[in-house]
Amino acid sequence: MITNLSTLVELAKKNPKVVSVAAAEDEVVISSAREAYLEGIATFRFYGSADRIEKMCSALNFKEGYTIIDCKNKAESIKSAILSVSSGESQLLMKGYIKTGELLSAFLKDEFNLKTGRTMNLVTVFELERYHKLLLVTDAGMVISPDLQQKADSIVNAASVARALGIEVPKVAVLAAVEVVNPKMQATLDAAVLSQMAARGQLGMVEVDGPFALDNAISAEAAKHKGIVSPVAGDADIVIMPDIEAGNIFYKAMAFLSGAELASTIVGGKVPIILTSRADSERTKLQSIALNVVLAGGV
After folding, report:
1. Is 174 helix (H, G, I), strand (E, B) or coil?
2. Residue 223: HSE in the Cβ half-sphere, 13 Å Cα cutoff
3. What is the pLDDT of residues 150-162, one digit of tens each?
4. Most CB atoms within 10 A, among 18, 121, 226, 238?
């Protein structure tokens, strides 16, 4: 089982992948690609304006490890990059200088055959100084107000990431503001239903419990104080946020206040999608690429 994110880069080196970047005219993305290539975990296909991409690569002294495919416009670059993945020419897709929604709306078109039928969502893996193992969190940036089925999909998606990290039966805590079912709080009702769905094998090989307040999910002492008896309490591998506000605030608090190490992926399709943010550290960008390489079969 992987216990720290630095291990991801070493694992990814064992089986590097080809990554197609849609709308690659982005210094942040190209810089991330350069670091990934220098670490030996990926080579790249850049789709977009060849002239602009060449200038950015030159400014970064990035001379090899990539191919540039000139595209007339953004729509062509998105379609071409996705087609490269769907055809098997590339193993991973990466978001460039476009909105996530623009990329996903194209990715989910039937012509590419990349859908699984599940809702796609963002999963972030955190390495936290005060937690005893890696913690997976969903969703900090995509699904705004997930309904019951979308939360069920997010459990399945996050569990697939957990298993790639060596966690065979991940423990999933479904979060709310309180740890008891309250008919007036939808998040608590969803948590109770999801727990029962998991118990009946509807969510695969996972152990799900909830509702939990965050402290009860990650602190055995807090759970004991509340009288909560559960194998998930204080030992969660995955936490399911009730909505995007909670997920996004948690993500940024961990990244900017606690200095947590992290890596992210968009999962739920037939191939994972890499995205990096301008606010992410260089280390986070590299770890995110490495995580996706591992998810694509890099171990």
Report:
1. strand
2. 20
3. 999 999 999 999 9
4. 238
Residue with tokens 């970047």: 21
Summarize pLDDT for 180-197 with one digit per residue, the tens.
999 999 999 999 999 999
Mean pLDDT of 81-85: 98
pLDDT score for 181: 96
User: Is residue 120 left, alpha or beta, with left meaning phi > 0 and alpha meaning psi from -120 to 50?
Assistant: beta
Helix axes 50-59, 27-38, angle to 10 degrees: 60
Q: How far apart are CA 17 and CA 40, in angstroms?
A: 9
Quote the CA–CA distance of 89 and 87 in Å, as a whole number.
6
278 or 250, greater pLDDT: 250
Q: Is the pLDDT of residue 278 over 90?
A: no
Pairing mode of beta strands 92-95, 17-22: parallel
Q: What percent of the chain has pLDDT over 90?
A: 95
Angle between helices 74-86 and 100-107 (to 10 degrees): 50
Tell me the sheet residues that pair with 262: 126
Give Cα separations from 245 to 18, 94, 241, 249 (angstroms).
Answer: 34, 24, 9, 6
Can you tell me whether residue 17 is helix, strand or coil?
A: strand
Predicted pLDDT of residue 299: 42
Distance separating alpha carbons of residues 172 and 6, to the nearest angstrom: 24
**Buried b / exposed e along 78-97 (16+ C-beta atoms within 10 A):** bbbbbbbbbeeebbbbbbbb
The pTM of this model reads 0.95
Cα dihedral 95, 245, 171, 147 in deg (nearest 10): -90
Strand, coil or helix: 63: coil
